[in-house]
């Protein structure tokens, strides 16, 4: 790794993880690292085309699964369980063992964690730390999340075999990479990845941690449908025309036509029909969901003028009664659902809302 400085390039040497970290051996250090900082799992590498790639909350550490004990159990914002094994694969026996482990996890996940058992185990784990797992999920994925619906989705995905398996280490040998790639290609619903966590830095001072995902290919992602359906304006109109709730379908068509006409429409690739509005910075800042929920992206990076522009939008939404007056956008890392759906608005209120959006979206 190189550091660019005024005088040229400076080499940042590799710091072998094999000696451990935090005063612990490699496997314990990796577990503690991921437990403390779940964001080191590179969601953007798992779903590079997404504007909301996987984000994670830890549910449990060292949880029994059959004859094994899983190192880490996490869940992402789409209610997919993620199983992580941290391994130092120094010999063929260790490599064969970890492959056997993840196959057993995949085969038995629904049995061990279905029917709300994942939630029960998570509650037990976090209660020992004086915290409530549902509160943690709300903090990470948005305080307005329907926690009960979220856990129902966890159960549904488990029943369908939709889980994510990750083998984490400081370095994955070529034979392990080939096995991971093969499994990810052949397993229909489960995602299987290797994760290399490399450290760089001097003997003393800060470290640079570089996560690198192994096993993901665009072909595999497309075949598994991890990116969902591409919802063009034409396809959305067809869905809205036949929406089970006539009023919802009509209101969504109205907003869709407005977005297309003014050139702010952004198609989405998702499992469920939705679309977005393009902000002045070129990225999505507003999304519309099939139940008429409106989601506002509130990270300052989405706005050309940063937090100042974001805060102006929040202020105008508060004035319309679309956000709570005590809401602080600095309290969320990604975004927030507006407190009123499209179908809750009178026609004059919808017009006022779209006028606000027009001031922050590209014409």
Share of residues in helices: 25-40%
Number of helices: 12
Task: Give the class from helix and strand content and strand pairing.
Answer: alpha+beta
Mean pLDDT: 86
**Spatial strand order of the main sheet:** 3-4-5-6-7-8
Content of β-strand: 15-25%
H/E element string?
Answer: EEHHEEEHHHHEHEEHEHHEEEEHEH
How many separate domains? Answer: 2
What Rg do the Cα atoms give? 23 Å
In total, the number of strands is 14
Q: Uncertain spans, ≥5 residues at pLDDT below 50?
A: none
Report, as a whole number of angstroms, the end-to-end distance. 42 Å
Largest sheet properties = 6 strands, mixed
Identify the overall geometry: globular
Any overview of this molecule?
The protein is α+β, with helices and mostly antiparallel strands. The chain folds into 2 domains: 7-224, no CATH class; 229-360. 39% of the residues lie in helices and 22% in strands. It contains 12 helices and 14 strands. The protein has helices at residues 26-36, 43-46, 92-113, 117-127, 133-141, 147-159, 174-186, 218-224, 233-241, 246-262, 307-319, 347-360, and strands at residues 2-5, 8-11, 56-65, 68-76, 81-86, 164-169, 191-200, 208-214, 229-231, 265-270, 275-278, 284-288, 294-297, 335-337. The strands form 3 sheets. It has a 6-stranded mixed sheet with strand order 3-4-5-6-7-8, sandwiched between helices. The chain has a 6-stranded antiparallel sheet with strand order 9-10-11-12-13-14. A two-stranded antiparallel ribbon has the order 1-2. Helix 9 packs antiparallel against helix 10 and helix 11 packs antiparallel against helix 12. The mean pLDDT is 86.
């Amino acid at each position: 790794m190189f550091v660019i400085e005024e005088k040229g390039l400076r080499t940042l040497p590799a710091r072998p993880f094999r000696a451990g970290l935090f005063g612990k051996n490699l496997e314990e250090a990796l577990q503690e690292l991921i437990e403390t900082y779940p964001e080191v799992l590179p969601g953007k590498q798992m779903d590079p085309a997404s504007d909301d790639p996987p984000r994670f909350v830890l549910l449990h550490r060292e949880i029994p699964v059959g004859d094994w004990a899983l190192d880490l159990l996490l869940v992402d914002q789409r209610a997919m369980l993620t199983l992580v094994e941290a391994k130092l694969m120094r010999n063929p026996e260790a490599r064969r063992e970890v492959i056997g482990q993840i196959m057993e996890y995949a085969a038995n996940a629904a049995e061990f964690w279905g029917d709300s058992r994942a939630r029960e185990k998570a509650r037990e784990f976090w209660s020992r730390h004086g915290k409530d797992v549902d509160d943690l999920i709300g903090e990470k994925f948005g305080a307005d999340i329907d926690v009960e619906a979220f856990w129902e989705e966890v159960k549904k995905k488990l029943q369908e075999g939709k889980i994510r398996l990750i083998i984490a280490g400081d370095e994955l040998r070529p034979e392990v990479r080939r096995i991971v790639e093969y499994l990810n290609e052949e397993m229909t619903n489960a995602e299987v990845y290797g994760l290399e966590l490399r450290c760089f830095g001097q003997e003393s001072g800060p470290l640079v941690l570089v996560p690198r995902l192994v096993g993901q290919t665009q072909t595999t992602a497309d075949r598994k449908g991890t990116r969902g359906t591409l919802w063009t304006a034409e396809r959305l109109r067809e869905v809205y025309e036949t929406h089970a709730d006539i009023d919802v379908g009509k209101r969504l068509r109205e907003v869709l036509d407005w977005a297309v006409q003014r050139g702010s429409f952004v198609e989405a690739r998702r499992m469920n029909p939705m679309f977005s509005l393009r902000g002045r910075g070129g990225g999505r800042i507003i999304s519309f969901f099939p139940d008429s929920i409106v989601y506002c992206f509130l990270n300052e990076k989405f706005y050309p003028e940063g937090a100042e522009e974001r805060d102006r939008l929040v202020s105008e939404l508060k004035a319309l009664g679309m956000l709570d007056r005590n809401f602080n956008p600095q309290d969320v890392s990604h975004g927030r659902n507006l407190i009123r759906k499209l179908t809750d608005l009178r026609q004059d209120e919808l017009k006022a809302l779209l006028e606000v959006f027009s001031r922050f979206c590209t014409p």
